[in-house]
Structures are given as structure tokens and as C-alpha cells.
Amino acid sequence: LNNLGVIYSENGKVTEAETYLTNAINCNNTFLPAYFNRFKLYYETNQFYRALDDLKYAEQIKPDTVVIPFSYGLAYTRLRNFDAALESFNQAMKLDPDNHEILINRATVHYYRNDSKAALSDFQQAQQFPEVKAEALNGVSMIYTLNGDYEGALTQVNQAIELSPAQPYYLNNRGYIFLLLGRLDEAVQDIDSSIALDAMNAWSYRNKGWFYFLKGEYQDALRLLLQAIEMDPFTEDICWMIGTVYAKLDETNKSCEYFKLSIENKEWHSKLLTEINCR
To answer: Taking the model in full, what pTM does it have?
Structure first.
């Protein structure tokens, strides 16, 4: 039953996957693989509170496994509870200090908490480990981008791409940096390559939407940005971008709706919205 659930999950059949995994748990309510696989299913379909419920059951069965706090960290990150996510990743690192994926995820949480110094420290530490070096370089690139050092960001992400040329996330990140540098032709080439490699990455559609925005093609921009937020509401700065496009289209109510969401989600650009007159 568990294996059937995994197969259905990997083929995108969520209802069938949930049914088989639930039946596996009903057959044996201490069978940890089914809990973790159902957690993964809920996590990947943005059902984070249900994912947390499965972790709580698994924690009662085997509380000392590193998978538990690591998974908590993933779920809390997506819920934007970054303090709880950081605490969970710290706990995971105590249980498995040689797991460098935990270090990468902790650095990412520092980034989302707007603690660039701590994020940079973790990413730079991770660069010494070959299995996560490319991820770490990409992470440093994100921090440089946030701080406005686009040329420095480009240098870092190029090194990541040299290590992993077919990684769509790195190509998409470089595409976004090219957008910020005004190098639109190079940007769209990278973004399109990223989409071709992974058509399910909402951040690529966000960047393609922003490409159209920069070209003044606002309806195409809006279409892709709305697609991105539907695919993954966690996509960074997506509400601010959608609000900005609606403002260009003179749709004030819609613009303000998304700007307010941007502030609630503590998006990076929300600090630019304090002077917007939305009542």
C-alpha cells in the first residue's frame, strides 16, 4: 500500500496517493515510511498543516530521528514561520552535524528572515562541501542580489552553473539577475531554458512574467505572474510584482489587494509600499 502510494504520488495522482498512504497507516499506525511519504505528498501540494499533523504522529513513534526536525523546518519555512523553521533546523543539525543539506536550508531561512550576515556565513561554510557547493554558490548569489550587488551575484551563480550546467534553478536565478541588469535578451534565454528543464517551477514563470513587465507587455506579464502564484504562493516577491502590474493597468483595487498581501507576507519589496495610498 505504501509503495503504491509513492508510485501514484510520483505520477501526480494526489487523490489516489493519499488513499493508499492512508490505508497503509490504517493497516499499521506505527509504519513510519507511510507517514513520511504522506508528509511529502501534503508538503508538495501546499497542505502544510496536514503535513505537520503527520510529523507529529511520526514524532511520537520515533522522536530522535533527524528527519523529524528537518521536515518540521521545511514545513515551517513554507508557512513563513521562519523562527520555528530556524529552531527546527538547529535541532536537526545537533542530531546530524555532517548533514550539509541542513546547513543549506538553515542558510535559506536566515535569508528569508532578512539576516544576510547569518545566511552568508552558512552558505560560505557550505561551499567547502562538494555535494552542496553549487547550492551554496547559488545562495550567495541570492544574497548579493538582495543587497544590490548584481555583478557579484552573477559571478557566484556562474560558478554554480559551471558545477551543475543543467540545474534549472541556477539558470532561472541567472535569468533574474540579467533582468535586474537590463540584459533582457540574455535573461529570457536563461528563463526559457529553465522552464524547458523544469516546467513546474513557479519562480521561472514569475521571472518570465517580470520580463514581459520590463518590456511593457503588461497583460502577458499579469498572465504569467498569476500562473506563478497559483502554482506556488510562496514564490518570492510575487504579490508585489502582481500589484505593480495591476497598478500599471490602472486597476487600483486589485493593485492594493496584492500590495497588502505583499506586506503581510513580508516580501522584500514591501518596504517600498509604505507610501502607496490604499484604503
So the answer is: 0.90
